[in-house]
Structures are given as C-alpha cells and as structure tokens.
Automatic annotation (TrEMBL):
Residues 4-64 form the HTH tetR-type domain. Keywords: DNA-binding, Transcription, Transcription regulation. The keyword Calcium does not apply. Residues 27-46 bind DNA. It comes from the Bacteria. This is Transcriptional regulator, TetR family. Gene3D superfamilies: Tetracycline Repressor, domain 2. Pfam families: TetR_C_28 (PF17937), TetR_N (PF00440). PROSITE patterns: HTH_TETR_2. One of its GO terms (molecular function) is DNA binding.
Length: 194
C-alpha cells in the first residue's frame, strides 16, 4: 500500500508543477524535489518523464471512470443514467485536486499519444451516452456542454462565476430530466426503434 501512496504523491507533485509553474518546468529533478524524495526514488516508480506523464493521464482517466461507473451503478433509472452520471461527476465530483487536469496538458506537450487512456474512456462514455435511452444528439449536446465548462477551467480561458456554473448545471439536469420524461411518455404510446 505504501508503494501506491508514494506513486500518488509523485503524481500529485508532478501535477502541481505543471499547474503552477508550467509544462516546461516539469523535469524529473523538479518532481523529485517537489515530492520530497530522491531522484532515484522517483525513478523506481517512473523511469522517464514520459512514463510519469502517462501515469498522470492514466490516474485521471481511471479516477473519472470509477466515479462515473459508481454513479451509474447507484442510479435506479435505466434511461439517462450514463448522461446523468457524466454530468454529475464532471460538475460535482471531479477530481478533488484540480491540478490533476494539468497532466492532460503535459501529455499533449510531451507526447499526444499519452492521452490514449482518456481517448478510450471518452469513446466508452460516448457510446454509453448515445445508447442511454435518450435522443443520442440531445444526450451528446449535454455531454459537450459539460465538457465545455471543464475545458474552459482547464485552459483558464474564461471561468464563469460559481452561481452561473450552478445555473448551467441545473439547466442541463432539467433538460436531461425532461428528455427522460419524454422518453417515458413515448415508450408508453409507441416502441422506440433503435
């Protein structure tokens, strides 16, 4: 268990460096110093900078996968559960350390192929959202709107005020609930052909 914890400490340190100092300051030496370990200790867990960045992306993707799956498992409604889980997790239960998103920026700069775990997760989420029992275009629009909030924060382009973010979340959730009701009404009167 200590090894897992040390790896997380290292990944947290790398994320802080990218988030606060920039991608070009991400070196193995800087990460070791930030994590409070020797470079040899860091190399035990991550042999290269690329392996470190890969670990950052994998950890982020796995964390979101687990949270979304947990919400899906807890949802008692069949229709819209994947879309609801994606919306809820991204707005309300994202990674507690916002610096983690910096790993995505590092991956794009170091080697875009390191984003594969996130690409795989999104392929899976999009498939599930499109087959969620809702209109697939509406469900996709909700996902893309949700991503827009997240990406504006990631790139620090323009962050809306917290009250406005809450209003956007509530509007998207209302839309989703209305889609679910419409789907329920349709299924009472006619089968949905897929």
């Amino acid at each position: 268990m200590a090894r897992h914890s040390r790896k997380i400490d290292i990944l947290n340190a790398a994320s802080r460096i990218v988030s606060h100092q920039g991608i070009f300051n991400l070196t193995l030496e800087a990460v070791a110093k930030e994590a409070g370990i020797s470079k040899g200790g860091l190399l035990y867990h991550f042999k290269t900078k690329e392996a470190l960045v890969s670990g950052m992306v994998e950890h982020l993707a796995n964390n979101y996968r687990e949270k979304i799956q947990s919400h899906v498992n807890e949802d008692t409604e069949e229709t819209g559960k994947w879309t609801r889980a994606f919306l809820n997790v991204t707005f309300n239960h994202g990674y507690p350390n916002k610096d983690w998103n910096a790993g995505l920026l590092a991956a794009k700069a170091v080697n875009p192929e390191l984003l594969k775990p996130l690409h795989d997760a999104y392929r899976e989420w999009q498939h599930n959202i499109e087959n969620d029992g809702l209109d697939s275009v509406d469900a996709t629009l909700i996902r893309l709107s949700t991503d827009g909030i997240w990406l504006s924060e990631l790139f620090d382009v323009y962050q809306i005020e917290d009250y406005k973010k809450k209003q956007v979340y509530e509007r998207l959730m209302d839309w989703l609930n209305n889609l679910q009701k419409e789907n329920g009404e349709q299924s009472d009167t006619q089968p949905i052909n897929r």
